[in-house]
Amino acid sequence: MTSDVLELRLRSVGAQSLATYLLAEIRSGRMPVGVKLPGERELSERFNTSRGSVRRVLAALRSSGWITQAVGSGTFAARPINAEWGEDGPVSDQTSPAELMEARLLIEPLMPALIVQHATRADFAHMHECLIKGEQAQTIEDFELWDGELHQALAQATHNHFFLQVLALTNRVRQQGDWGRLKRDSLTPERRAQYERQHRAIVAALEDRDAEQARDALKGHLAQIQRNLFDPPEG
């Protein structure tokens, strides 16, 4: 079993076999980047494992950047950006929270133009699920999870694999300890409420197919996060 599969921490033999197969196919190029993977039912039957195990494998591969998923479109082979870095180490390990926010401010406001063109009803339903789950979150960790999932949903709604790759890298950087510490130190109840209002404004503008308003709302949201991360409230 490869180290990549071990890192996914999958328990069942079927799930491990599925992960090994998908990683081997994508790494070798037999399953090229961008090709659509078989459906969950087919994978479940082929590897004699439950649909739940298939979903856990796909979720683990998505988190590590080996696949992308777009609501209503399917699951596609990808390649982690850090897979090309060799001895220099993973990109996510070299990216500081400050660098991440600088890049997000440049890149993510490009998404609304594509979202208003390509987003489906299922995409917007997923965004609303993220909004609701984020607002219901009882801990900072759960709020951060659904915050990240909302931004992932925005990337999925572009139906553009470049943005899905960028957001996969973003989520890996957000899993670092420095990001979590900054978020915990900076997130007050007032700031969280502000983020929630901003999230709803972004989604509302996208549903109205108003790319300019959505872009401005997203830029304002990211700029506010940037200020808050590096200007924690006084204790």
- The CATH H-level superfamily of the largest domain is GntR ligand-binding domain-like
**N to C succession of SSEs:** HHHHEEHHHHHHHHH
How much is the average pLDDT? 82
Strand order of the largest sheet: 1-2
Radius of gyration: 18 Å
Helix tally equals: 13
Characteristic terms for this protein:
single chain; 235 residues; mainly alpha; Arc Repressor Mutant, subunit A; Four Helix Bundle (Hemerythrin (Met), subunit A); 2 domains; two-stranded antiparallel ribbon; 3% strand
Architecture overview:
- The chain is mainly alpha-helical and 235 residues long.
- It has two domains: 77 residues, Arc Repressor Mutant, subunit A, CATH 1.10.10.10; 140 residues, GntR ligand-binding domain-like (Four Helix Bundle (Hemerythrin (Met), subunit A)).
- The protein contains 13 helices and two strands; from the N terminus they run H-H-H-H-E-E-H-H-H-H-H-H-H-H-H.
- The protein has a two-stranded antiparallel ribbon with strand order 1-2.
- The radius of gyration is 18 Å and the shape is globular.
